[in-house]
Design brief:
By secondary structure, the protein is mainly α. It contains eleven helices and four strands; from the N terminus they run E-E-H-H-H-E-H-H-H-E-H-H-H-H-H. The protein folds into two domains: 175 residues, no CATH class; 81 residues, no CATH class. The protein has a two-stranded antiparallel sheet. It is found in: Membrane. One of its GO terms (cellular component) is membrane.
Length: 284
């Protein structure tokens, strides 16, 4: 019998103690997402180049040299800020990863930090863009001999093949930054029309609402404002566990919105009677 494929599900225990059991993205999925991002980068770069040509038309050789310098600088800034800016966002993913339902997460279960995102994307320069730029430059100068081409291919090959030789399919950048690229956790979706016409799906007892106070209400509001899907999944599961929720296990956003509204109403009503609860540890 052929050996069974290694499962790609990993424990992902958040600081709240919730295990999301994330499924890691495969090498093919990651390559496809990277290819989509490269296509987007090239389209933006082409548009930028055309705009710059219109500005520099008729300037002669000096303009051509300036154009080359601007193009190289623009390409450097674009490729670095594109990946970093999108992965620092609430979704932790570039456009290519979003299309393929993936995101970058911290392997320790915590929030994805800025220095981790910068580190993993800085390594992409060494893994891919630096040897590619060097090879392109040598080719333009007519100096690309067999040894130069071989060295560039060997350099890129070591990094390109690295994800195939570790069980978590990590790039060198992931290894250094302490990150995974995981498939987006599944969320249950419903028809919005049916939900609007139906009776409220979520209702809570006074005991369930009494599990939290004002501090937790503020934190829940921050999560809802950010719209981070992973954070909403974690918070929804944490609340369900704490209050012993046995009702519908639906989409996290409606559940959190319903609980936020109900908790807010309860806290405001109690304050009218002089009963204020600052957090879940206070009596109330």
């Amino acid at each position: 019998m052929p050996p069974m494929a290694e499962p790609r599900t990993r424990q992902f225990v958040t600081p709240e103690g919730v295990d999301l059991r994330l499924e890691l993205a495969g090498v093919g999925e990651r390559a496809a997402a990277f290819l989509l991002d490269l296509i987007i980068l090239m389209l933006v770069l082409i548009a930028f180049t055309i705009a710059a040509l219109f500005v520099l038309v008729g300037t002669g050789p000096a303009g051509g040299q300036a154009m080359a310098a601007i193009w190289l600088l623009g390409f450097f800034l674009l490729r670095n800020f594109y990946f970093t800016a999108f992965e620092l966002g609430t979704r932790g993913a570039t456009i290519g990863k979003r299309v393929l339902k993936m995101r970058v997460v911290a392997r320790n279960g915590g929030r994805l930090s800025g220095h981790a995102v910068v580190a993993r994307n800085a390594m992409r320069e060494l893994e891919f863009f630096l040897p590619l730029s060097f090879f392109a430059y040598e080719s333009s100068q007519g100096l690309a001999d067999f040894a130069t081409a071989g060295a560039g291919l060997l350099w890129s090959g070591v990094f390109v093949l690295f994800p195939f030789f570790n069980r978590d399919h990590m790039r060198v950048g992931d290894l250094i930054a302490g990150t995974w690229v995981a498939r987006q956790p599944r969320r249950t979706l419903r028809a919005a029309v049916v939900e609007r016409q139906a009776a409220p799906l979520y209702s809570f007892t006074d005991a369930q609402l009494g599990a939290y106070g004002e501090f937790e209400l503020q934190k829940l509001e921050e999560v809802l404002r950010r719209g981070d899907e992973l954070a909403m999944i974690v918070v929804a599961r944490t609340i369900r566990t704490r209050i012993g929720w046995t009702g519908a296990q639906g989409d996290e956003l409606p559940f959190l919105q319903a609980y936020y509204a109900a908790l807010c109403t309860r806290l405001e009503r109690n304050m009218l009677f002089g009963q204020r609860r600052r957090d879940k540890h206070a009596q109330g």
